[in-house]
Each structure stands twice: as C-alpha cells, then as structure tokens.
Amino acid sequence: MITVALGAARKNGITYFFFPQWEKYKFINHGFSSRSGGVSKGPFASLNLGYSGGDVPGAVNENRRRFLEIFGQKLDSLVCGEQVHGTRVHLVEKSFYFASKDQGRVIPATDALITAEPGVVLGALSADCLISFFLDPVTPAIGLAHAGWRGTCSGILAGVVKSMCRFFGSKAEQLEVFMAPCIGGSCYEVGGEVLDFCAGSLWVEDIVFLPGKTPDHPFLDLQKTNFNILKRMGIQPGKIYGNKCCTCCNQHLFYSYRGIKGRSTGRQMGIIFLR
C-alpha cells in the first residue's frame, strides 16, 4: 500500500478532498466531503450528508445539493446503497438508473456499488467506516464500497473486485483502489463480538490487530486489513492507496461516531462518477 497525501480544495464554502493520483484521468471525477460548508446545526454541523441520526431532512437535501453542485451534478444523479454492513455489491445499469429516478435511488441491503455508465454518481456515507474508491482505467469502470469492521472482515472489498471482473471483464492487476479517511488503527478499539466474528472469517489471516490497552480489546486497522485482502485478490500493492488521516483524530474536519462516543452525528460522503 502506498500512503499518499490527500488533495484538498475549497469551493463555494465547502472543503473537500480528492486523490491527486487520479487527476490524470479526465474521464472520471470523485471527491470526499468534510463537515464544513453546509446548513445543518448542532451535532450535525454543518455539511451532514446522511439522513440517519436525526438531522432535518431538508438540511441534508440542501447539503447534498451543494456538495454535488461542486462537481456539476444534481441530486437525481446520485445512487447510494442502504449500507447495512453487509457484503452485497450492486451493478448500477442504465435501465435501473432511469427507471428509479423517482425512488430516491437507494439500493436496499447494499454496501457497494459498481457501474460503467457515464453520468451515474455513486455515493457512500461514513462517520469512521472506510470508503474505498475503485477504478478500472482500461474499461473504464468504477466502484465504491462502505466497510466497517463487519464488512471488512466479511470481505466486501474482495466482492467488489470479483464483481468488476465478472461484469466488466476487468483484470485485477489493472484495478486501482483509493481508501478515503477513516478511523485509524490506533483509535479503533474492538472487543469480544468483533474478535469472535473475525475468528470465523475466511479472511482471518489478513486481519490486522494492534495491541490494545487490554489483551481482549485490541485495535483494528481497517486500511491495513483491506490492503491485505485486496492484495490477495490480485491487485498490485502499488495500485492500492491509503492515507494517514484519521476521522476520530480530526473531528474538526470529519464526523466520527467513535469520537462523539456513539451519540448522534453526521456523515461525510464519497462520490465517484464517469464523465
């Protein structure tokens, strides 16, 4: 895994992040939001892009409109998964995209999306979980996945690789993956439920735990674990990019469920689309 510095930009009062290594590709656009530049109040201040948690829906709609406008997109271009910490990967085809225009475009029981359709904006939300951006620059095709501990240890990113190879004819060695800011390994303490689940995981050898304050509460490193899984799936290590930006340690920039100790908070969003 190559650790890179995120690019940062500010437009219309909104600070967002991007991956400089993908600026050479003129056929895609992507971004990862911060928490600044929106209209939400209280614990959701201010660019909350998620409806869960209790924020005013109208404020979330306005925040989404502002964020998408930076990229020249509108609300009716956005497709998201329901995000249930599962492993389902959904192929967004043109027929679904147009047929579902009035349905909010939220795919039930889905945590990862893939498409080869230009103009379809894939979106994923997080407040500590890892959002991973996938690119096949040859086809071209894209993917976006949400992974907390359960999705990570169930291999959802491996599912995205398999799905892109199946539906687009992608080759694992030509795929590139960027991991957005998430909770860092030194902040993500886990306990018995996670340890028991991981012990039965098909990916148990790839899961990276760091020593915790007590033996039965280690820290889980989401980026390193997913890197190991992606590498095992055949993606070249030099095409997997991570970063050192922890959402829990940077709550002035990001929402963090752990940082706020499980209380109500907002969500940042990652988006990617083919031009």
Description:
- It contains six helices and 16 strands.
- By secondary structure, it is α/β, with parallel strands linked by helices.
- The chain has a single domain, classed as 4-Layer Sandwich (CNF1/YfiH-like putative cysteine hydrolases), CATH 3.60.140.
Q: What is the architecture at the second tier of CATH?
A: 4-Layer Sandwich
- What Rg do the Cα atoms give? 17 Å
Number of domains: 1
Task: Name the CATH superfamily assignment.
Answer: CNF1/YfiH-like putative cysteine hydrolases
Oligomer, anyone? single chain
Segments where pLDDT lies below 50 for 5+ residues? none
Strand count, sense and barrel status of the largest sheet are:
7 strands, mixed
- C-alpha end-to-end distance: 27 Å
Please tell me the overall pLDDT. 96
- Helix/strand/pairing category: alpha/beta
What series of H and E elements makes up the topology?
A: EEEEHEEHEEEEEHHEHEEHEE
Measured as a percent range, the helix fraction is: 10-25%
Assess the beta-strand content as a share of residues: 25-35%
Shape: globular
CATH topology-level fold name: CNF1/YfiH-like putative cysteine hydrolases
Give me the count of strands.
16
**Helix segment count?**
6
CATH class categorisation? Alpha Beta
Task: Going across the biggest sheet, name each strand in turn.
Answer: 1-15-12-10-11-8-6
